[in-house]
Amino acid sequence: MALLELNKVKKIYKQGKIEVPALQGIDLTVEPGEFTTIFGPSGSGKTTLLNMIGCLDTPSEGEVKLNGDVVSKLSQTKLAMVRRYNIGFVFQAYNLIPVLTAYENVEFAVRLIHHLKEEEMKEKVLNILEAVGLKGLETRRPNELSGGEKQRVAVARALVKEPKIVLADEPTANLDSKTGADVIKIMVKMNQKLGTTFIFSTHDPQIMKYAKRLINLKDGMISADERRE
């Protein structure tokens, strides 16, 4: 069974009486374990498509399925539950809680969905922080971390929930090329080790280099869909 399906998905935004099409009949199937990059010029619909996949928005027409279940017609409350248990997010701006340490930011994500004993919780959080290269930095707050370290915390926070999909919207945009490459390699490793599905929206050629599937968006439509070994 496909992990994700979009069938004839359209998204139209209204500006007064004017209708602005952002997505124009997207058909897309994603299998478990894919490492996929969505790219295209500004205004092509990349972020809108990611919002549909991530259950952050609903289509004007068409349907979105996750694990075979139609999620595009759910209420906002039920969509929030789908996101909580199935989807991890990595954002360009990190979106960390500034008053919490790296450990506490990741721990907070776990507490939302898992009821673990304290020792199990501690082991789970420390293991994922070590896996993303943050061993020894667990007690630092975001203002004490570099951009790359903040993004590693964000990756750890997304992965610690054991989501079916991790969505990353321009995750390297605020990083220099070397730091960005290091963060990408961590996500590649997690994809290979855990089998987590990753879907990126990006302009970064470094991410495209590692992607096993490249989807080119143009004017809200898929203009090319290339799979690579």
Can you summarize this structure?
The chain has seven helices and ten strands. The chain is α/β, with parallel strands linked by helices and 229 residues long.
Question: What do these coordinates show?
Answer:
The chain is α/β, with parallel strands linked by helices. The protein has one domain: P-loop containing nucleotide triphosphate hydrolases (Rossmann fold). The chain is built from seven helices and ten strands. The chain starts with a strand and ends with a strand.
Q: What is the secondary structure topology, with strand pairs?
A:
Blueprint (H helix, E strand, L loop, with lengths): L3 E12 L2 E13 L4 E5 L6 H8 L7 E6 L2 E2 L5 H11 E5 L10 H12 L4 H14 L15 H13 L5 E5 L7 H18 L2 E5 L3 H6 L2 E6 L2 E7 L2
Parallel strand pairs: 3-8, 3-9, 6-7, 7-8
Antiparallel strand pairs: 1-2, 1-4, 4-5, 9-10
List keywords for this structure.
36% helix; Rossmann fold; 229 residues; alpha/beta; globular
Shape: globular
Radius of gyration: 18 Å
Number of helices: 7
Measured between the Cα atoms of the first and last residue, the distance is 21 Å
